[in-house]
């Protein structure tokens, strides 16, 4: 199964970073393609997108200033199937991608994604204060995972993503 292609470019407002693609995303070649994943609904409900996008439209979000990548490119059934070696290599590759493209915000879709990347033991929801970012000038934001397995109420998840939306609107104005 092939990795899901990154959607990255220069001048992006946000790059969304996941653990790795699901098997379903690997099959269809698009980010957050599992129908039980709430990612696209969260973006719409939080105001980050003007409408509900389909996974097949993931490349279209570059026009909105949003990109996509993962800490590990290999699709798996779950994050527990990712090896230590894959994480080590993925951290280096992700740091290089962020340094090259320099988005305004690196949004980690899940605390586990952020702690794997940063090697920190804890993270709070939202912007990470008190810690140096991995790439100078790229703000780090931790948002809840969009997996359908997450037990946090959808309104709370959407509220955290809404803070991300407010941050980019404040930055533009």
From TrEMBL:
GO term, biological process aspect, one: base-excision repair, AP site formation
Domain Uracil-DNA glycosylase-like: residue ranges: 9-155
UniProt KW DNA damage keyword: yes
Signal peptide range: none
Keyword DNA repair carried by entry: yes
Superkingdom assignment: Bacteria
SUPFAM superfamilies cross-referenced by the UniProt entry: Uracil-DNA glycosylase-like (SSF52141)
Entry protein name: Mismatch-specific DNA-glycosylase
């Amino acid at each position: 199964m092939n990795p899901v292609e990154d959607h990255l470019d220069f001048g992006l407002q946000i790059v969304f970073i996941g653990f790795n693609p699901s098997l379903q995303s690997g099959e269809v070649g698009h980010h957050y393609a599992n129908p039980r994943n709430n990612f696209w609904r969260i973006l719409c409900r939080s105001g980050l997108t003007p409408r509900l996008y389909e996974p097949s439209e993931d490349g279209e979000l570059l026009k909105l200033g949003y990109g996509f990548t993962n800490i590990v490119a290999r699709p798996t059934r779950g994050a527990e199937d990712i090896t230590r070696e894959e994480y080590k290599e993925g951290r280096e590759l992700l740091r290089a991608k962020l340094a090259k493209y320099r988005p305004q915000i690196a949004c980690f879709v899940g605390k586990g994604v952020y702690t794997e990347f940063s090697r920190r033991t804890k993270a709070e929801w939202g912007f990470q204060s008190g810690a140096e970012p991995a790439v100078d000038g790229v703000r780090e934001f931790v948002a809840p995972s969009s997996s359908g397995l997450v037990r946090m109420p959808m309104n709370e998840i959407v509220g955290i993503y809404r803070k991300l939306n407010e941050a980019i609107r404040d930055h533009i104005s």
